[in-house]
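Homework-ish question, so no full write-ups if that breaks the rules, but can someone show me the predicted structure for this set?
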Amino acid sequence: MILKSKKSSWAYIVARVKVMKRRLIPSEEYRKLLNMDFNEIVRYLEETDYKREIDELAYKYSGPRLLDYALTLNLGRTYKKIQDVSFGVAKYLITEYLRRWDIWNIINVIRGKMAGVSAEEIEESLVPIGEYTIDFYKSLIPKEIDEIVKTFEGTPYYSALSKIGSEPLSIIEDELYKIYYQKLLKERPNEIALKLFMDFIRMEIDIKNIKTILRLKREDVSTDEIMKRIIPGGFEITEREAAKLSAMTWDELIKALEGYWFWKGIEGITDKSISRIEIKFDKAWMEIVAKRAINYPLSILPVLQYIVLKKIEVDNLRTLGWGKWQGIPNEEIEEQLVIL
Amino acid sequence: MSVVKVQPTRMELIKLRRRIKMAKRGHALLKMKRDGLIMEFRELLEEAKKVIGGMAEKYEKAQQKLALAMAVDGVIAVKSIALSRQCEPRFVMHKKNIMGVVVPVIKRDEKIIKCVVEREYGVLGTTARIDEAVEAYEQLVDAILEVAEIETTIRRLIEEIEKTKRRVNALEYRVIPSMEEACKFIAFKLEEMDRENIIRLKKLKSKKAKRA
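A: Not a homework solution, just the prediction itself:
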Protein backbone atom coordinates (compact mmCIF):
# COMPACT_ATOMS: atom_id res chain seq x y z
CA MET A 1 0.00 0.00 0.00
CA ILE A 2 1.40 3.42 -1.00
CA LEU A 3 0.87 5.93 1.78
CA LYS A 4 0.41 9.67 1.28
CA SER A 5 -0.48 12.24 3.89
CA LYS A 6 -1.22 15.96 4.30
CA LYS A 7 0.86 18.10 6.64
CA SER A 8 -2.33 19.54 8.16
CA SER A 9 -3.46 16.09 9.32
CA TRP A 10 -0.17 15.66 11.22
CA ALA A 11 -0.51 19.11 12.77
CA TYR A 12 -3.86 18.18 14.32
CA ILE A 13 -2.88 14.81 15.74
CA VAL A 14 0.53 16.07 16.93
CA ALA A 15 -1.17 18.99 18.73
CA ARG A 16 -3.58 16.58 20.45
CA VAL A 17 -0.77 14.26 21.43
CA LYS A 18 1.35 17.18 22.74
CA VAL A 19 -1.45 18.08 25.14
CA MET A 20 -1.71 14.45 26.23
CA LYS A 21 2.06 14.27 26.62
CA ARG A 22 2.00 17.16 29.06
CA ARG A 23 -0.18 15.04 31.33
CA LEU A 24 2.47 12.32 31.61
CA ILE A 25 4.19 12.05 34.98
CA PRO A 26 7.47 14.06 34.81
CA SER A 27 10.76 12.23 35.33
CA GLU A 28 11.51 14.16 38.56
CA GLU A 29 8.32 12.82 40.13
CA TYR A 30 9.68 9.26 40.06
CA ARG A 31 12.30 10.22 42.66
CA LYS A 32 9.47 11.37 44.93
CA LEU A 33 7.44 8.24 44.19
CA LEU A 34 10.44 6.06 45.00
CA ASN A 35 10.41 7.37 48.56
CA MET A 36 6.68 6.76 49.03
CA ASP A 37 5.06 3.57 50.28
CA PHE A 38 2.46 1.64 48.26
CA ASN A 39 -0.58 3.44 49.72
CA GLU A 40 1.01 6.83 49.16
CA ILE A 41 1.68 5.93 45.51
CA VAL A 42 -1.97 4.94 45.04
CA ARG A 43 -3.11 8.17 46.72
CA TYR A 44 -0.79 10.11 44.39
CA LEU A 45 -2.28 8.34 41.36
CA GLU A 46 -5.79 9.09 42.61
CA GLU A 47 -4.96 12.72 41.88
CA THR A 48 -3.95 11.97 38.28
CA ASP A 49 -5.66 10.56 35.15
CA TYR A 50 -5.58 7.09 36.70
CA LYS A 51 -8.28 7.97 39.28
CA ARG A 52 -11.15 6.88 37.03
CA GLU A 53 -9.75 3.40 36.43
CA ILE A 54 -8.71 2.88 40.07
CA ASP A 55 -12.22 3.80 41.27
CA GLU A 56 -13.82 1.69 38.56
CA LEU A 57 -11.94 -1.50 39.42
CA ALA A 58 -11.77 -1.05 43.19
CA TYR A 59 -14.87 -3.27 43.67
CA LYS A 60 -13.11 -6.21 42.01
CA TYR A 61 -9.43 -5.95 42.93
CA SER A 62 -7.33 -4.60 45.77
CA GLY A 63 -3.67 -3.89 46.51
CA PRO A 64 -1.14 -4.05 43.67
CA ARG A 65 -3.54 -6.05 41.47
CA LEU A 66 -5.94 -3.12 41.49
CA LEU A 67 -3.11 -0.81 40.49
CA ASP A 68 -1.92 -3.22 37.78
CA TYR A 69 -5.34 -3.69 36.16
CA ALA A 70 -6.19 0.02 36.49
CA LEU A 71 -2.94 0.99 34.76
CA THR A 72 -3.58 -1.46 31.91
CA LEU A 73 -7.16 -0.25 31.50
CA ASN A 74 -5.93 3.36 31.41
CA LEU A 75 -3.31 2.43 28.80
CA GLY A 76 -5.99 0.79 26.67
CA ARG A 77 -8.27 3.84 26.94
CA THR A 78 -5.45 6.25 26.12
CA TYR A 79 -4.54 4.29 23.00
CA LYS A 80 -8.21 4.16 22.01
CA LYS A 81 -8.41 7.94 22.43
CA ILE A 82 -5.39 8.44 20.15
CA GLN A 83 -7.03 6.20 17.55
CA ASP A 84 -10.30 8.14 17.88
CA VAL A 85 -8.78 11.59 17.51
CA SER A 86 -6.61 10.63 14.57
CA PHE A 87 -7.75 10.24 10.98
CA GLY A 88 -6.43 9.31 7.57
CA VAL A 89 -2.96 7.86 7.31
CA ALA A 90 -2.18 8.65 10.96
CA LYS A 91 -5.15 6.57 12.14
CA TYR A 92 -4.18 3.75 9.80
CA LEU A 93 -0.58 3.66 11.04
CA ILE A 94 -1.53 3.88 14.73
CA THR A 95 -4.08 1.08 14.30
CA GLU A 96 -1.51 -1.06 12.51
CA TYR A 97 1.09 -0.35 15.20
CA LEU A 98 -1.31 -1.30 18.02
CA ARG A 99 -2.15 -4.64 16.39
CA ARG A 100 0.61 -6.24 18.48
CA TRP A 101 -1.94 -6.36 21.30
CA ASP A 102 -4.23 -8.44 19.09
CA ILE A 103 -1.48 -11.06 18.93
CA TRP A 104 -1.11 -10.86 22.71
CA ASN A 105 -4.86 -11.42 23.20
CA ILE A 106 -5.19 -14.17 20.56
CA ILE A 107 -2.26 -16.08 22.07
CA ASN A 108 -3.69 -15.77 25.57
CA VAL A 109 -7.10 -17.09 24.52
CA ILE A 110 -5.46 -20.08 22.79
CA ARG A 111 -3.04 -20.72 25.66
CA GLY A 112 -5.89 -20.59 28.16
CA LYS A 113 -8.00 -22.97 26.06
CA MET A 114 -5.10 -25.41 25.72
CA ALA A 115 -4.34 -25.30 29.43
CA GLY A 116 -8.06 -25.81 30.19
CA VAL A 117 -8.29 -22.91 32.64
CA SER A 118 -11.52 -21.10 33.48
CA ALA A 119 -12.97 -18.32 31.32
CA GLU A 120 -12.38 -15.80 34.14
CA GLU A 121 -8.69 -16.60 34.20
CA ILE A 122 -8.40 -16.13 30.43
CA GLU A 123 -10.36 -12.86 30.62
CA GLU A 124 -7.96 -11.56 33.27
CA SER A 125 -5.03 -11.99 30.89
CA LEU A 126 -6.63 -9.91 28.09
CA VAL A 127 -5.64 -6.32 27.38
CA PRO A 128 -8.27 -3.93 25.96
CA ILE A 129 -6.03 -2.65 23.12
CA GLY A 130 -5.93 -3.51 19.42
CA GLU A 131 -8.32 -3.96 16.53
CA TYR A 132 -10.66 -6.42 18.26
CA THR A 133 -12.66 -5.59 21.37
CA ILE A 134 -12.56 -7.48 24.67
CA ASP A 135 -16.12 -8.66 23.98
CA PHE A 136 -14.90 -10.26 20.74
CA TYR A 137 -12.26 -12.21 22.68
CA LYS A 138 -14.81 -13.14 25.34
CA SER A 139 -16.99 -14.58 22.58
CA LEU A 140 -14.05 -16.76 21.48
CA ILE A 141 -13.48 -18.31 24.91
CA PRO A 142 -16.39 -20.83 24.82
CA LYS A 143 -15.41 -22.00 21.31
CA GLU A 144 -13.13 -24.91 20.45
CA ILE A 145 -9.56 -24.12 19.30
CA ASP A 146 -10.36 -25.11 15.67
CA GLU A 147 -13.32 -22.73 15.63
CA ILE A 148 -11.17 -19.93 17.10
CA VAL A 149 -8.58 -20.46 14.37
CA LYS A 150 -11.34 -20.43 11.71
CA THR A 151 -12.54 -17.06 13.04
CA PHE A 152 -9.25 -15.56 11.87
CA GLU A 153 -9.53 -16.98 8.37
CA GLY A 154 -8.76 -14.19 5.91
CA THR A 155 -6.52 -12.31 8.35
CA PRO A 156 -2.70 -12.35 8.17
CA TYR A 157 -2.60 -14.38 11.40
CA TYR A 158 -4.40 -17.38 9.88
CA SER A 159 -1.31 -18.87 8.20
CA ALA A 160 0.43 -19.12 11.59
CA LEU A 161 -2.64 -20.05 13.63
CA SER A 162 -3.54 -22.93 11.28
CA LYS A 163 -0.34 -24.66 12.43
CA ILE A 164 -1.72 -25.12 15.96
CA GLY A 165 -1.48 -28.79 16.84
CA SER A 166 1.34 -29.52 14.43
CA GLU A 167 3.85 -26.98 15.75
CA PRO A 168 4.66 -25.90 19.34
CA LEU A 169 2.74 -22.81 20.48
CA SER A 170 5.99 -20.95 21.19
CA ILE A 171 6.96 -21.16 17.50
CA ILE A 172 3.48 -20.03 16.40
CA GLU A 173 3.65 -17.11 18.85
CA ASP A 174 6.99 -15.94 17.45
CA GLU A 175 5.69 -16.40 13.91
CA LEU A 176 2.68 -14.17 14.69
CA TYR A 177 5.00 -11.40 15.85
CA LYS A 178 7.09 -11.82 12.69
CA ILE A 179 3.91 -11.55 10.58
CA TYR A 180 3.00 -8.39 12.48
CA TYR A 181 6.35 -6.72 11.73
CA GLN A 182 6.41 -7.95 8.13
CA LYS A 183 2.99 -6.43 7.58
CA LEU A 184 4.17 -3.09 8.98
CA LEU A 185 7.27 -3.14 6.77
CA LYS A 186 5.18 -3.87 3.65
CA GLU A 187 3.82 -0.31 3.62
CA ARG A 188 5.42 1.89 0.96
CA PRO A 189 5.64 5.50 2.16
CA ASN A 190 6.61 8.11 -0.40
CA GLU A 191 7.37 11.03 1.88
CA ILE A 192 9.83 11.64 4.69
CA ALA A 193 7.17 11.96 7.43
CA LEU A 194 6.06 8.42 6.74
CA LYS A 195 9.49 7.02 6.05
CA LEU A 196 10.26 7.92 9.65
CA PHE A 197 7.57 5.47 10.70
CA MET A 198 9.39 2.73 8.86
CA ASP A 199 12.67 3.68 10.52
CA PHE A 200 10.93 3.64 13.91
CA ILE A 201 9.64 0.13 13.26
CA ARG A 202 13.00 -1.05 11.94
CA MET A 203 14.75 0.35 15.02
CA GLU A 204 12.23 -1.44 17.21
CA ILE A 205 13.05 -4.63 15.29
CA ASP A 206 16.75 -4.01 16.01
CA ILE A 207 16.02 -3.75 19.72
CA LYS A 208 13.88 -6.91 19.63
CA ASN A 209 16.53 -8.80 17.66
CA ILE A 210 19.45 -7.81 19.84
CA LYS A 211 17.46 -8.67 22.97
CA THR A 212 16.63 -12.07 21.44
CA ILE A 213 20.28 -12.71 20.52
CA LEU A 214 21.51 -11.79 24.02
CA ARG A 215 18.78 -13.81 25.76
CA LEU A 216 19.47 -16.91 23.71
CA LYS A 217 23.24 -16.47 23.71
CA ARG A 218 23.23 -16.44 27.52
CA GLU A 219 21.74 -19.93 27.39
CA ASP A 220 24.16 -21.12 24.66
CA VAL A 221 21.43 -21.67 22.09
CA SER A 222 22.71 -22.61 18.62
CA THR A 223 22.91 -20.02 15.84
CA ASP A 224 20.23 -21.86 13.82
CA GLU A 225 17.78 -21.70 16.71
CA ILE A 226 18.52 -18.01 17.26
CA MET A 227 18.04 -17.24 13.57
CA LYS A 228 14.58 -18.87 13.66
CA ARG A 229 13.54 -16.12 16.08
CA ILE A 230 15.11 -13.15 14.29
CA ILE A 231 12.69 -10.65 12.75
CA PRO A 232 13.82 -9.70 9.23
CA GLY A 233 14.02 -6.05 8.19
CA GLY A 234 15.97 -4.49 11.03
CA PHE A 235 17.48 -0.99 10.79
CA GLU A 236 21.06 -2.10 11.40
CA ILE A 237 20.58 -5.65 12.63
CA THR A 238 19.54 -7.30 9.41
CA GLU A 239 19.31 -11.08 9.12
CA ARG A 240 22.94 -11.21 7.92
CA GLU A 241 24.15 -9.09 10.81
CA ALA A 242 22.10 -11.15 13.24
CA ALA A 243 23.64 -14.38 11.91
CA LYS A 244 27.10 -12.88 12.36
CA LEU A 245 26.35 -11.74 15.91
CA SER A 246 24.73 -14.99 16.98
CA ALA A 247 27.77 -16.99 15.90
CA MET A 248 30.00 -15.03 18.32
CA THR A 249 30.86 -15.81 21.94
CA TRP A 250 29.37 -13.60 24.66
CA ASP A 251 32.44 -11.37 25.04
CA GLU A 252 32.90 -11.03 21.28
CA LEU A 253 29.21 -10.20 20.95
CA ILE A 254 29.35 -7.41 23.54
CA LYS A 255 32.43 -5.98 21.82
CA ALA A 256 30.77 -6.25 18.40
CA LEU A 257 27.78 -4.18 19.56
CA GLU A 258 30.07 -1.14 19.64
CA GLY A 259 29.17 1.08 16.72
CA TYR A 260 25.49 0.20 16.50
CA TRP A 261 23.05 3.07 17.01
CA PHE A 262 22.05 1.78 20.47
CA TRP A 263 25.63 1.31 21.71
CA LYS A 264 25.78 4.55 23.71
CA GLY A 265 22.92 3.43 25.91
CA ILE A 266 24.42 0.08 26.79
CA GLU A 267 28.08 1.09 26.95
CA GLY A 268 29.90 -0.53 29.85
CA ILE A 269 27.69 -3.58 30.38
CA THR A 270 29.65 -6.23 32.18
CA ASP A 271 27.16 -8.56 33.86
CA LYS A 272 25.09 -11.25 32.17
CA SER A 273 21.83 -10.04 33.76
CA ILE A 274 19.77 -9.57 30.61
CA SER A 275 16.83 -8.07 32.51
CA ARG A 276 19.04 -5.08 33.43
CA ILE A 277 20.47 -4.80 29.92
CA GLU A 278 16.95 -4.87 28.43
CA ILE A 279 16.03 -1.71 30.35
CA LYS A 280 19.16 0.00 28.98
CA PHE A 281 18.16 -0.91 25.43
CA ASP A 282 14.68 0.54 25.97
CA LYS A 283 16.18 3.77 27.31
CA ALA A 284 18.61 4.05 24.39
CA TRP A 285 15.82 3.48 21.89
CA MET A 286 13.50 6.01 23.53
CA GLU A 287 16.22 8.66 23.59
CA ILE A 288 16.82 8.26 19.84
CA VAL A 289 13.07 8.39 19.13
CA ALA A 290 12.74 11.55 21.26
CA LYS A 291 15.59 13.22 19.35
CA ARG A 292 14.07 12.31 16.00
CA ALA A 293 10.60 13.45 17.10
CA ILE A 294 12.05 16.90 17.84
CA ASN A 295 13.70 17.01 14.41
CA TYR A 296 10.50 15.96 12.63
CA PRO A 297 7.62 17.51 14.59
CA LEU A 298 5.09 17.10 11.79
CA SER A 299 5.24 13.36 11.37
CA ILE A 300 4.02 10.18 13.00
CA LEU A 301 7.06 10.16 15.30
CA PRO A 302 5.68 12.42 18.09
CA VAL A 303 2.58 10.20 18.17
CA LEU A 304 4.59 6.99 18.33
CA GLN A 305 6.87 8.57 20.91
CA TYR A 306 3.84 9.32 23.06
CA ILE A 307 2.50 5.77 22.60
CA VAL A 308 5.80 4.33 23.82
CA LEU A 309 6.20 6.95 26.59
CA LYS A 310 2.73 6.14 27.90
CA LYS A 311 3.61 2.43 27.96
CA ILE A 312 6.86 3.26 29.79
CA GLU A 313 4.94 5.37 32.34
CA VAL A 314 2.50 2.53 32.99
CA ASP A 315 5.40 0.06 33.32
CA ASN A 316 7.26 2.41 35.69
CA LEU A 317 4.22 2.94 37.91
CA ARG A 318 3.53 -0.78 37.99
CA THR A 319 7.17 -1.46 38.89
CA LEU A 320 6.95 1.10 41.70
CA GLY A 321 3.63 -0.24 43.02
CA TRP A 322 4.51 -3.93 42.93
CA GLY A 323 8.08 -3.24 43.99
CA LYS A 324 6.95 -1.35 47.09
CA TRP A 325 4.29 -3.98 47.86
CA GLN A 326 6.79 -6.84 47.59
CA GLY A 327 9.42 -4.98 49.60
CA ILE A 328 12.00 -4.82 46.79
CA PRO A 329 14.83 -2.42 47.75
CA ASN A 330 14.67 1.09 46.25
CA GLU A 331 17.93 0.63 44.32
CA GLU A 332 16.60 -2.47 42.60
CA ILE A 333 13.30 -0.76 41.73
CA GLU A 334 15.22 2.23 40.34
CA GLU A 335 17.30 -0.07 38.14
CA GLN A 336 14.12 -1.37 36.51
CA LEU A 337 12.63 2.07 35.87
CA VAL A 338 12.97 3.71 32.47
CA ILE A 339 13.47 7.36 33.45
CA LEU A 340 14.31 9.61 30.52
CA MET B 1 12.42 -62.40 85.50
CA SER B 2 9.51 -64.76 84.88
CA VAL B 3 9.77 -68.41 85.73
CA VAL B 4 10.75 -70.44 82.71
CA LYS B 5 8.33 -73.16 81.72
CA VAL B 6 10.46 -75.76 80.04
CA GLN B 7 10.87 -79.47 80.22
CA PRO B 8 14.11 -80.14 82.11
CA THR B 9 15.40 -82.70 79.67
CA ARG B 10 18.80 -83.08 78.09
CA MET B 11 17.22 -82.82 74.64
CA GLU B 12 15.60 -79.50 75.57
CA LEU B 13 18.95 -78.28 76.91
CA ILE B 14 20.70 -79.09 73.64
CA LYS B 15 17.92 -77.39 71.68
CA LEU B 16 18.06 -74.31 73.90
CA ARG B 17 21.84 -74.05 73.63
CA ARG B 18 21.52 -74.19 69.85
CA ARG B 19 18.85 -71.46 69.93
CA ILE B 20 20.99 -69.25 72.19
CA LYS B 21 23.92 -69.62 69.82
CA MET B 22 21.70 -68.66 66.88
CA ALA B 23 20.11 -65.75 68.78
CA LYS B 24 23.55 -64.40 69.69
CA ARG B 25 24.66 -64.62 66.08
CA GLY B 26 21.42 -62.88 64.99
CA HIS B 27 21.94 -60.27 67.69
CA ALA B 28 25.46 -59.52 66.45
CA LEU B 29 24.23 -59.31 62.85
CA LEU B 30 21.34 -57.02 63.75
CA LYS B 31 23.70 -54.83 65.76
CA MET B 32 25.95 -54.56 62.73
CA LYS B 33 22.92 -53.73 60.54
CA ARG B 34 21.79 -51.08 63.02
CA ASP B 35 25.25 -49.51 63.09
CA GLY B 36 25.44 -49.63 59.30
CA LEU B 37 22.02 -48.00 58.96
CA ILE B 38 22.98 -45.29 61.46
CA MET B 39 26.14 -44.54 59.48
CA GLU B 40 24.14 -44.39 56.24
CA PHE B 41 21.58 -42.17 57.98
CA ARG B 42 24.27 -39.76 59.19
CA GLU B 43 25.72 -39.43 55.72
CA LEU B 44 22.26 -38.83 54.26
CA LEU B 45 21.45 -36.33 56.99
CA GLU B 46 24.39 -34.17 55.95
CA GLU B 47 23.31 -34.38 52.32
CA ALA B 48 19.69 -33.65 53.29
CA LYS B 49 20.78 -30.54 55.20
CA LYS B 50 22.57 -29.28 52.09
CA VAL B 51 19.68 -30.14 49.74
CA ILE B 52 17.01 -28.61 52.01
CA GLY B 53 19.14 -25.50 52.50
CA GLY B 54 19.57 -25.26 48.73
CA MET B 55 15.83 -25.64 48.23
CA ALA B 56 15.11 -22.83 50.70
CA GLU B 57 17.59 -20.59 48.90
CA LYS B 58 16.08 -21.46 45.52
CA TYR B 59 12.59 -20.73 46.89
CA GLU B 60 13.70 -17.30 48.07
CA LYS B 61 15.38 -16.58 44.73
CA ALA B 62 12.31 -17.74 42.80
CA GLN B 63 10.07 -15.50 44.91
CA GLN B 64 12.34 -12.51 44.24
CA LYS B 65 12.46 -13.20 40.52
CA LEU B 66 8.68 -13.61 40.36
CA ALA B 67 8.22 -10.39 42.33
CA LEU B 68 10.45 -8.57 39.86
CA ALA B 69 8.66 -10.07 36.83
CA MET B 70 5.27 -9.15 38.37
CA ALA B 71 6.53 -5.65 39.09
CA VAL B 72 8.02 -4.83 35.70
CA ASP B 73 6.00 -6.96 33.28
CA GLY B 74 2.79 -6.96 35.28
CA VAL B 75 0.43 -9.56 36.63
CA ILE B 76 -1.19 -9.95 33.20
CA ALA B 77 2.10 -10.93 31.53
CA VAL B 78 2.93 -13.39 34.31
CA LYS B 79 -0.58 -14.87 34.14
CA SER B 80 -0.23 -15.21 30.39
CA ILE B 81 3.02 -17.16 30.77
CA ALA B 82 1.44 -19.34 33.45
CA LEU B 83 -1.28 -20.25 30.94
CA SER B 84 1.37 -21.47 28.50
CA ARG B 85 2.29 -24.35 30.81
CA GLN B 86 0.26 -27.21 29.32
CA CYS B 87 1.00 -30.00 31.83
CA GLU B 88 2.55 -30.55 35.23
CA PRO B 89 6.11 -31.87 35.46
CA ARG B 90 6.08 -35.67 35.42
CA PHE B 91 8.36 -38.12 37.17
CA VAL B 92 8.69 -41.88 37.68
CA MET B 93 9.49 -43.60 40.98
CA HIS B 94 12.20 -46.27 40.93
CA LYS B 95 13.42 -48.38 43.87
CA LYS B 96 16.85 -48.71 45.44
CA ASN B 97 17.98 -51.08 48.20
CA ILE B 98 20.03 -49.75 51.12
CA MET B 99 20.85 -52.67 53.52
CA GLY B 100 17.49 -54.26 52.92
CA VAL B 101 15.57 -50.98 53.08
CA VAL B 102 13.69 -50.17 49.89
CA VAL B 103 13.99 -46.42 49.18
CA PRO B 104 12.62 -44.39 46.26
CA VAL B 105 14.63 -42.90 43.42
CA ILE B 106 12.79 -40.15 41.55
CA LYS B 107 13.54 -40.11 37.83
CA ARG B 108 12.39 -37.04 35.89
CA ASP B 109 10.28 -38.17 32.93
CA GLU B 110 11.04 -34.97 31.06
CA LYS B 111 13.67 -32.32 31.67
CA ILE B 112 12.46 -29.89 34.33
CA ILE B 113 15.10 -27.23 33.78
CA LYS B 114 14.63 -26.24 30.16
CA CYS B 115 16.33 -23.88 27.78
CA VAL B 116 14.38 -20.78 26.63
CA VAL B 117 13.69 -22.30 23.21
CA GLU B 118 12.30 -25.51 24.76
CA ARG B 119 9.70 -23.69 26.85
CA GLU B 120 6.07 -23.32 25.79
CA TYR B 121 6.17 -19.55 25.31
CA GLY B 122 7.67 -17.50 22.52
CA VAL B 123 10.77 -15.34 22.79
CA LEU B 124 9.57 -12.29 20.87
CA GLY B 125 6.58 -11.50 23.06
CA THR B 126 8.31 -11.99 26.43
CA THR B 127 11.19 -10.50 28.39
CA ALA B 128 14.34 -11.74 30.09
CA ARG B 129 12.71 -11.11 33.49
CA ILE B 130 10.08 -13.74 32.65
CA ASP B 131 12.88 -16.14 31.61
CA GLU B 132 14.68 -15.55 34.90
CA ALA B 133 11.51 -16.14 36.95
CA VAL B 134 10.62 -19.31 35.00
CA GLU B 135 14.19 -20.61 35.29
CA ALA B 136 14.20 -19.95 39.05
CA TYR B 137 10.93 -21.87 39.47
CA GLU B 138 12.17 -24.76 37.31
CA GLN B 139 15.21 -25.02 39.57
CA LEU B 140 12.91 -24.92 42.60
CA VAL B 141 10.73 -27.77 41.28
CA ASP B 142 13.87 -29.83 40.64
CA ALA B 143 15.11 -29.11 44.17
CA ILE B 144 11.71 -30.08 45.64
CA LEU B 145 11.90 -33.47 43.86
CA GLU B 146 15.42 -33.99 45.19
CA VAL B 147 14.29 -33.11 48.71
CA ALA B 148 11.27 -35.42 48.39
CA GLU B 149 13.57 -38.30 47.43
CA ILE B 150 16.06 -37.73 50.22
CA GLU B 151 13.36 -37.06 52.82
CA THR B 152 11.52 -40.29 52.01
CA THR B 153 14.82 -42.20 52.14
CA ILE B 154 15.63 -40.71 55.53
CA ARG B 155 12.15 -41.49 56.87
CA ARG B 156 12.38 -45.11 55.70
CA LEU B 157 15.87 -45.43 57.21
CA ILE B 158 14.67 -44.05 60.54
CA GLU B 159 11.79 -46.55 60.57
CA GLU B 160 14.20 -49.39 59.80
CA ILE B 161 16.71 -48.21 62.43
CA GLU B 162 13.92 -48.11 65.02
CA LYS B 163 12.75 -51.58 64.04
CA THR B 164 16.28 -52.99 64.15
CA LYS B 165 16.96 -51.29 67.48
CA ARG B 166 13.82 -52.86 68.95
CA ARG B 167 14.90 -56.29 67.69
CA VAL B 168 18.44 -55.88 69.04
CA ASN B 169 17.12 -54.77 72.43
CA ALA B 170 14.57 -57.57 72.53
CA LEU B 171 17.27 -60.13 71.80
CA GLU B 172 19.78 -58.54 74.17
CA TYR B 173 17.55 -57.88 77.17
CA ARG B 174 14.72 -60.39 76.85
CA VAL B 175 15.07 -63.31 74.46
CA ILE B 176 18.70 -64.28 75.11
CA PRO B 177 18.57 -63.77 78.94
CA SER B 178 15.34 -65.75 79.24
CA MET B 179 16.76 -68.58 77.14
CA GLU B 180 19.97 -68.51 79.18
CA GLU B 181 17.92 -68.64 82.35
CA ALA B 182 15.96 -71.55 80.99
CA CYS B 183 19.22 -73.19 80.06
CA LYS B 184 20.58 -72.63 83.57
CA PHE B 185 17.35 -73.95 85.03
CA ILE B 186 17.50 -77.12 82.95
CA ALA B 187 21.18 -77.62 83.72
CA PHE B 188 20.48 -77.15 87.41
CA LYS B 189 17.50 -79.50 87.28
CA LEU B 190 19.51 -82.10 85.41
CA GLU B 191 22.35 -81.83 87.94
CA GLU B 192 19.80 -82.07 90.72
CA MET B 193 18.35 -85.19 89.13
CA ASP B 194 21.86 -86.59 88.79
CA ARG B 195 22.56 -85.89 92.42
CA GLU B 196 19.25 -87.47 93.45
CA ASN B 197 20.11 -90.55 91.43
CA ILE B 198 23.55 -90.83 93.04
CA ILE B 199 22.10 -90.49 96.52
CA ARG B 200 19.38 -92.99 95.69
CA LEU B 201 21.99 -95.41 94.43
CA LYS B 202 24.18 -94.80 97.49
CA LYS B 203 21.21 -95.44 99.79
CA LEU B 204 20.33 -98.62 97.95
CA LYS B 205 23.96 -99.71 98.22
CA SER B 206 24.07 -99.01 101.97
CA LYS B 207 20.75 -100.87 102.53
CA LYS B 208 22.12 -103.80 100.57
CA ALA B 209 25.29 -103.71 102.69
CA LYS B 210 23.30 -103.66 105.98
CA ARG B 211 21.20 -106.63 104.85
CA ALA B 212 24.33 -108.54 104.00
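Now go work out the reasoning yourself. Hint: The first helix of chain A runs from residue 7 to 22.
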